[in-house]
Design brief:
- The chain is mainly alpha-helical.
- It is built from five helices and no strands.
- The protein is globular.
- The two termini are 17 Å apart.
Length: 95
């Protein structure tokens, strides 16, 4: 349990940094992104094109596919749901 907690904490931090970089959110700091806040439709103004960019980054960096809209809607509900999905499905993190 402790190992999963520390991996999830690191993953949440890494995702915040990557989201800021991929989407060029110049005025956003990692601490501005809430773990359980809305990702799409929240205060970051993430739209469908941004989601597509994030899907590409997640596939490249974590080897995890998000290949349909229904799955994407669930996965991108919040940063935590995104991190949990990556954690459960990434062979990169399991290594």
């Amino acid at each position: 349990m402790c190992r999963m907690g520390s991996i999830m904490d690191k993953l949440l931090k890494d995702l915040k940094i990557k989201i800021i970089e991929v989407l060029n959110l110049m005025d956003v700091q990692p601490e501005d992104i809430a773990d359980d806040g809305l990702l799409v439709g929240g205060n970051l103004d993430i739209d469908s094109i941004d989601v597509l960019e994030l899907v590409i980054m997640i596939e490249k960096d974590y080897g995890v596919k998000i290949d349909n809209r229904e799955l994407g809607a669930k996965v991108f509900a919040s940063l935590r749901t995104l991190a949990e999905y990556i954690y459960k499905n990434s062979k990169v993190l399991a290594a």
